[in-house]
Amino acid sequence: MHKKIKLLISIFFLTNSFLFAQDLELENIFKNKQVDGTIVIESLNTKKIYVYNEKRAEILFSPASTFKIPNTLIALNEGVVTKNSVIVWDKKIREYESWNKNQTLQSAFKTSCVWCYQEFASKIGIEKYKKYLEELDYGNKNIGTDVTRFWLDESLKITAYSEIKFLKRLYTNDLPFKIEDINLLKNIMIDEKNEDFTIRAKTGWEGKYGWYVGFIETKNDVWFFATNIDTKSKDDLIKRKEITLEALKIKGIIN
Questions:
Q1: Of 72, 149, 59, 133, residue with least CA distance to 108
Q2: How far apart are CA 161 and CA 53, in angstroms?
Q3: Residues with catalytic annotation?
Q4: Where on the phi/psi map is residue 133: left (φ > 0), alpha (ψ -120 to 50), or beta?
Q5: Dihedral (C-alpha) 78, 147, 95, 67: value to the nearest 10 degrees?
């Protein structure tokens, strides 16, 4: 009996030492980039999971523009926009030049055009959003009082783990939306594509912190990822994707 207990204890410590060593690989990426944050990477087929800073991965943050993933499906389902819609610019000059013109759904998503999605939200309304967030089990489901800002003003919050959970449902078409709308969204989400992999993802930036979330389809698996980092300045924004790609490489998911 004592030998069995000793063996189990040894296995426990060996396993945890291995996991800790794996964490160090990811930790070094964050240290080299000089940012605080978290990353969760999970396999669809093997259920293998890599996590750096698990404590932060469980903290609720505003989804910021990562909410454009479910919000696009909601807007399509409500008929406030279609694949071929022209979203007419109101001629107000905004911070980003790419926002200061008419938009399509694809350009609005790609450029994170806030005014476009605020226009959708005004038409959809708080009560419908409440129902959608309950049905999607998305984050803390809190909309607050401003329907045009709830995903930006920290009323709605979500964890890195919950981002992964939602992305899995998206990939497996396990969402209460038309399959053609889901496929349209997946096409719009393509951020990088080559013969070895396809990345479908969305960035988000709250001001103090930023996201890069999505999934990467390789030849033999699908990996979901959610990266969240503190952003001291706009110079840190590029690090969201850089950290994610380095993590995918160091874990042998991509070359």
A1: 72
A2: 12
A3: 65
A4: alpha
A5: -60
DSSP codes of every residue in 217-230: E-SS-EEEEEEEEE
Four-residue CA torsion sign, 70, 76, 80, 82? positive
Report the DSSP beta bridge partners of residue 230: 209
Instruction: Sketch the domain layout of the chain as residue ranges.
Output: 22-250
What band does 2 get if pLDDT is binned at 50, 70 and 90? low
Each residue's pLDDT tens digit, 97-119: 999 999 999 999 999 999 999 99
Q: Which runs of consecutive H residues, i.e. helices, occur in 34-84?
A: 54-57, 68-78
* Fold observed for domain 22-250: Beta-lactamase (3.40.710)
Q: In the chain, pLDDT over 70 holds for what percent of residues?
A: 91
What sign does the CA torsion over 96, 151, 166, 68 have? negative
Structure tokens given for 215: 């999934």
Q: Looking at the chain, list the stretches that DSSP marks H as alpha helix, in order from N- to C-terminal side.
A: 2-33, 54-57, 68-78, 105-110, 114-124, 126-136, 160-171, 179-188, 238-250
